[in-house]
Design a protein that fits this description.
This protein has 267 residues and is α/β, with parallel strands linked by helices. The chain has 2 domains: 152 residues, 3-Layer(aba) Sandwich (Rossmann fold), CATH 3.40.50; 97 residues, no CATH class.
């Protein structure tokens, strides 16, 4: 990111609160179940951030580490062995701050990778043995990093592979409209002010959007919106459904936990 948003971590906004709450609830059964496989675990927070907001609230790295520590403590109380757990945190702009914010007693599991997600993730996975369980937490600073090729490769390479992706579908469609030169019918400031990204993705070519969506199906949806056959909310619903269908070609289970704008916002 060439121009990091210095204000992003000043205060934890409601969207970040909701995403970390979902992460907490998701990891509770995940850690409990996956450690029972007795296979080693690689957990990767692909866009880790500072680890803590300036207002003192935890970010996703500490959220995951607290939950892991809680689950392991419960298992130790039952005198049960714990497999190897490795927690990797990829971060470009705030790696030094993240290192400070991770408590010493979590260092046994933690490694901070200073750099871009795109530059590090493939090498990291290539050097991970095939008997590992893999979990990627992907809350990108901008949708440009969500190339579908990586996601399609994972399920066949490891003992298990699981993704938790925060996909700004509204942001994708807004950018799709810009690339296709379609004017939004909604007032952008009114409807999209809470969906600002840390590092806004700007696309130049349709193929870039195809790479993220894993296909060109989104173009027909945008055309329906342009022809006023559907509204913005319906376009987002259609896109989300089709994106999940693409993931289902490679993953046995695909679930969504939508954080949606209200239906009544769109005409």
């Amino acid at each position: 990111m060439s121009n990091p948003n210095k204000e992003f971590f000043k205060e934890k906004k409601i969207w970040s609160e909701i995403k970390d709450e979902l992460l907490t609830h998701y990891l509770t059964p995940y850690f409990s179940k996956i450690l029972e496989t007795k296979k080693p675990l690689l957990y990767v927070d692909c866009f880790a951030g500072k680890g803590k907001f300036d207002d003192g609230k935890d970010g996703s790295p500490l959220t995951a580490l607290h939950k892991l520590n809680e689950i392991i403590d419960n298992k130790h109380k039952n005198n049960r062995s714990i497999p190897t757990v490795s927690m990797k945190f990829i971060e470009l702009n705030w790696a030094d701050e993240l290192n400070i914010n991770i408590p010493q007693h979590y260092q046994q599991w933690s490694e901070i990778i200073n750099g871009k997600f795109e530059d590090n993730i493939k090498n990291l996975l290539q050097n991970t043995p095939k008997d590992f369980n893999i979990f990627l937490y992907i809350d990108p600073y901008g949708i440009k990093a969500l190339n579908a090729t990586l996601f399609k490769e994972l399920p066949t390479k490891f003992n298990t592979a699981e993704l938790l992706i925060n996909f700004n579908s509204h942001g994708f469609l807004r950018e799709a409209c810009r690339v296709k030169k379609i004017t939004l019918r909604e007032q952008e400031d009114e409807f999209f002010s809470d969906l600002k990204e840390y590092d806004s993705s700007i696309f130049q070519h349709i193929n870039e959007l195809n790479d993220i969506a894993d296909g060109d199906y989104w173009q027909a949806i945008i055309e329906e919106y342009y022809q006023e056959e559907i509204n913005w909310y319906q376009a987002e619903q259609k896109f989300s459904y089709q994106y999940k269908q693409c993931l289902k070609k490679k993953y046995k289970y695909v679930l969504d936990m939508p954080i949606c704008l209200k239906k009544k916002s769109f005409s």
